[in-house]
TrEMBL record:
Protein name: Uncharacterized protein
UniProt xrefs under SUPFAM superfamilies: EsxAB dimer-like
Organism annotation: Kitasatospora xanthocidica
Length: 709
C-alpha cells in the first residue's frame, strides 16, 4: 500500500530511469536476434563440421537465438510496465499536489499524514454568520480530503497493478524466459485478467489476488473493459454468452465457502467493467443486441428455466454505475420479453423467483435496484408518455408473493422485488437515489409528474371506502414520494382544484390521494415524512403573508387571502388526522401497534424525518418546530364509541398544531398577547376558522374518502 507521506515525498525518476534502461536492454537484445544462427552456425557449417555433435551444437545455437528473442520481448514488456507505472505515479502525485495547493489557497493546512485542518477567522467567530461560514469551510475541507484520499488510492492501485504485471511477465521459470509477456497498459492488463478469469474456481489464492488487483485497478478504464468483454471465452462461448456464464460462475463463487470475499470483489468489478464498456454505447449496438438476445435464451438450468436474464440483471445491480441509455434498453427488453412469454413467474424464472430472502431469482428486482441508483434512467424507463413499462408493472405483472406481502416484516419487504420497484418509482418521481444524499430536485418535470400521477391514481382505488392495503415494501417509498410533492398535496387536498395541482401539474383525484396516504400510514415513519413535509409547506405559505395581514383591513375584515389559507391548511391537517383516525380504528385492539405507531410519530423523541426536504428560512423552520411539537403533544389513540362520534375532537393534534403556527406568526408580526387574545382581532377569527376547516377535513376524509363509519 502507498501512504500519503510516501506519495507526497517520493521521487519517481528512478521508475522512469528503470523503464528507459529496460528499453535499452530490449534494444540490445533485439540486435542479437538471429546473430547466433547467422554468425556461428553458418561458420561451423562452412568449415565442414558434421556428425551428431555438429547437429547438437546447431540445435543449441538456434535455441540461443530463440532465447534472445524471448528475452527481448520480456525486456520490452518490463519497460512498458515501468513506463506506465511512472506515468500513473506522476498523475497521482499531480492530483495530490493540486489538492494541497487548493487547501493552502483556502488558508487550510494539510498535516504530514494527510489530514486537512481549518479554523474560523478570528473576526468571524462571533459573527452571526459564523456557523454558515464554518459549514462552508467544513464542506471544502471534506472535499479536499476526499481528493487527497483518491490520489493516494490511485497511486496504490498503480503500484499493485505494476507489481502484478512485473511478476506475471517475468514468469516463474528459473531456466527459461516467459514466451508470452503482456507488457504494460490497460489492454495488456485486460488480457491478463481474461486469462486469469478463465480459471474461475481453480484459481490459486495468489492468482485470485492478482485478478482482484487487475480488476480493481482497471475496471473503470474503457480500453481495459472493452478489451476484456470482447476477449472473454467460456467453454467455447464468446462475447455476451461468455459474459453471462461468468456472471453466474463468479456470483456463485462469491457465495461459496472458499475465498468468497475475493470472488465477490472480482464479481463486483466485472459489473463496473460492464458499466464502463457500455457507457455511451461503447460496445456498439450489435454487441448490446447480442447481449439481450443471449439474456432471452434459457440458460444452463436442467429444467429449462431462464437463468440468463437473472444473471444479467444481478450483474447490473452488483456495483457498476450504468448510464441511462443502457439501463433503459435492458429494462424495456426485459419487460417486453416477460410480457410476451407464455410462461410466468416461477415457471419462467425458476423456483428462486418467489424467495423472499436469500437468493431471489426475480430479474426485475435487481433491475429495479440498479434503476433506483440512476433517477434519470428510472424516469425514462417508467415515463408513460414514452412507453408502456409503468402500465405493465402497475397493472399486469405478477410479483413474487403477491397477495401475501402484507404478512412480510418490513426489512424483508423492503429488500424484495416490490420494494425495489418502490425505490425505482421514488427515484423516477423525485429525481433522487432513495439511498443517496442528494438535495431535493426542483422543479419536478413533466415526466416525473406523469409517473407520480399514474402511480398514485392506480393504487388509490376507484371508490369511496376503498382503503388500499399497500404492499409493505411500497409504503416507505410512497411516503417519501408524497412528501416530496408536499406543495401539490397541499393544493389537491386543501384547494378546490379538481385534482389538478399547479406546482408540478399532478392529475390525481383528492380521495385517491388520501387513500394512498392511508395505505402508507400503516408505516408510521412513512406517515411522519408526509406530515413533516406538509407542516413545512404550510409554514412556508403562512410566512409569505406580511405583518399587516394580522390586523383588520380598512373595511374591518381580515385579509381574504389569510382566511383562504386557514381553510386550506385546516383541511390538509384534517385529512392527515382523518387518516390517523382510520389507522387507529382499524388497529383498535392491537395495543402494541398503537404504541409503536405513536412512538415513531413522536417528534419529541425522534426529531425530523431523514427524508431530504427543501431548505427554508429560520422563522419558517421555527414555525415547523412549534407546530410539530404541538402535534406530538396532542397524540391520542384512545378509541371508544362516544368519542368516535366527533373524530375532530378525538384527533385534534393537527388543529392545535395549526393554531400554534398562527399564533407564532402573529407574534412575529408584532402583535402583543392582548392583541392576539382580543375577540375582535384577526388572530382569534383565524383560530376559530381553524376549528371549522379542520373538523371538515377530518370527517370528510374519514367518512368519504376512507368509508369510515
Amino acid at each position: 500500500m502507498v501512504s500519503f507521506k510516501e506519495l507526497h515525498e517520493a521521487d519517481f525518476s528512478g521508475v522512469s530511469d528503470a523503464a528507459e534502461a529496460w528499453a535499452g536492454v530490449a534494444k540490445a537484445l533485439t540486435a542479437l536476434d538471429g546473430r547466433v544462427t547467422k554468425d556461428l552456425t553458418s561458420t561451423a557449417q562452412r568449415a565442414g563440421w558434421k556428425g551428431d555433435a555438429a547437429d547438437a551444437a546447431t540445435t543449441a545455437m538456434q535455441g540461443m537465438d530463440g532465447d534472445f528473442k524471448q528475452a527481448s520481448a520480456v525486456a520490452t514488456a518490463l519497460a512498458a510496465i515501468m513506463k506506465t507505472a511512472a506515468e500513473d505515479f506522476t498523475a497521482a502525485r499531480r492530483d495530490l499536489d493540486t489538492a494541497i495547493h487548493d487547501a493552502l489557497t483556502e488558508n487550510m493546512t494539510v498535516s504530514a499524514d494527510g489530514q486537512v485542518n481549518w479554523t474560523l477567522p478570528k473576526e468571524a467567530r462571533n459573527d452571526t454568520d459564523g456557523e454558515k461560514l464554518a459549514q462552508g469551510l467544513r464542506a471544502k475541507a471534506e472535499a479536499i480530503a476526499a481528493r487527497l484520499t483518491k490520489a493516494v488510492e490511485k497511486a496504490a492501485a498503480a503500484d499493485q497493478r505494476a507489481s502484478v504485471a512485473l511478476q506475471g511477465d517475468i514468469g516463474t521459470s528459473t531456466t527459461s524466459f516467459n514466451p508470452t509477456p503482456y507488457g504494460g497498459g490497460p489492454v495488456a492488463d485486460a488480457n491478463r485478467a481474461k486469462d486469469l478469469m478463465a480459471k474461475a474456481g481453480s484459481l490459486s489464492d495468489d492468482q485470485l489476488k492478482q485478478l482482484q488487483a487487475l480488476m480493481a485497478a482497471n475496471a473503470e478504464n474503457k480500453d481495459f473493459s472493452t478489451t476484456l468483454l470482447n476477449g472473454l471465452n467460456y467453454g467455447g462461448k464468446t462475447g455476451p454468452d461468455a459474459l453471462l456464464e461468468y456472471s453466474r460462475v463468479y456470483d456463485g463463487l462469491a457465495h461459496g465457502n472458499h475465498n468468497a470475499a475475493g470472488y465477490q470483489d472480482v464479481y463486483k468489478n466485472l459489473s463496473v467493467a460492464l458499466a464502463s464498456a457500455t457507457r455511451d454505447g461503447g460496445m456498439g449496438k450489435a454487441w448490446e443486441d447480442g447481449l439481450l438476445a443471449a439474456a432471452r435464451r434459457p440458460g444452463g438450468s436442467a429444467a429449462g428455466y431462464n437463468d440468463n436474464y437473472p444473471a444479467l440483471t444481478a450483474l447490473l445491480n452488483a456495483k457498476g454505475s450504468f448510464d441511462k441509455g443502457f439501463l433503459t434498453k435492458v429494462g424495456t427488453d426485459l419487460v417486453d420479453y416477460e410480457r410476451g412469454s407464455k410462461l410466468k413467474g416461477a415457471d419462467l424464472w425458476g423456483p428462486d423467483w418467489s424467495n423472499a430472502t436469500g437468493h431471489q431469482g426475480d430479474p426485475m428486482r435487481d433491475l429495479m435496484q440498479a434503476m433506483s441508483r440512476n433517477p434519470e434512467a428510472s424516469k425514462d424507463f417508467l415515463d408513460p408518455a414514452a412507453n408502456k413499462n409503468l402500465d405493465y408493472l402497475l397493472k399486469a405483472r405478477q410479483w413474487p408473493n403477491q397477495g401475501y406481502e402484507h404478512n412480510q416484516l418490513d426489512p424483508v419487504a423492503r429488500n424484495n422485488s416490490r420494494g425495489a420497484f418502490g425505490d425505482a418509482l421514488e427515484a423516477a418521481t423525485t429525481g433522487r437515489d432513495p439511498n443517496g444524499n442528494q438535495p431535493p430536485v426542483r422543479p419536478h418535470d413533466a415526466a416525473m409528474a406523469r409517473i407520480m400521477s399514474d402511480t398514485i391514481t392506480h393504487f388509490g382505488g376507484d371508490s369511496a371506502g376503498h382503503v388500499t392495503e399497500l404492499p409493505v415494501g411500497l409504503r416507505r417509498p410512497f411516503g417519501n414520494m408524497i412528501a416530496d410533492y408536499a406543495a401539490d398535496t397541499y393544493e389537491i387536498i386543501g384547494k378546490e382544484v379538481n385534482g389538478h395541482s399547479e406546482t408540478s401539474g399532478l392529475v390525481i383525484d383528492r380521495d385517491r390521494l388520501i387513500r394512498v396516504i392511508r395505505g402508507v400510514s400503516d408505516d408510521p415513519e412513512a406517515f411522519r415524512a408526509i406530515h413533516y413535509a406538509e407542516s413545512q409547506e404550510m409554514a412556508r405559505r403562512l410566512d409569505a403573508y406580511p405583518a399587516d395581514t394580522f390586523r383588520m383591513d380598512q373595511t374591518g375584515h381580515p385579509n381574504p387571502g389569510i382566511e383562504g389559507y386557514v381553510r386550506e391548511a385546516g383541511q390538509v391537517l384534517g385529512a392527515l388526522s382523518g387518516t390517523q383516525s382510520d389507522v387507529m380504528t382499524r388497529h383498535h385492539d392491537d395495543v402494541v401497534f398503537q404504541n409503536n405507531w405513536q412512538a415513531k410519530m413522536n417528534y419529541h423523541l425522534i426529531g425530523t424525518p431523514l427524508t431530504p426536504v427543501p431548505v427554508v428560512g429560520d422563522f419558517v423552520q421555527r414555525m415547523v418546530d412549534v407546530g410539530t411539537s404541538e402535534w406530538a403533544n396532542g397524540l391520542n389513540s384512545k378509541q371508544d364509541q362516544e368519542t368516535q362520534a366527533d373524530l375532530s375532537k378525538m384527533f385534534n393534534s393537527g388543529e392545535n398544531q395549526l393554531k400554534q403556527m398562527i399564533v407564532a406568526k402573529a407574534e412575529e408580526a408584532g402583535l402583543t398577547n392582548a392583541e392576539i387574545a382580543s375577540t375582535a382581532g384577526v388572530p382569534q377569527k383565524l383560530l376559530h376558522d381553524v376549528s371549522d376547516s379542520y373538523g371538515t377535513g377530518v370527517n370528510q376524509t374519514y367518512r368519504n374518502a376512507l368509508g369510515g363509519r
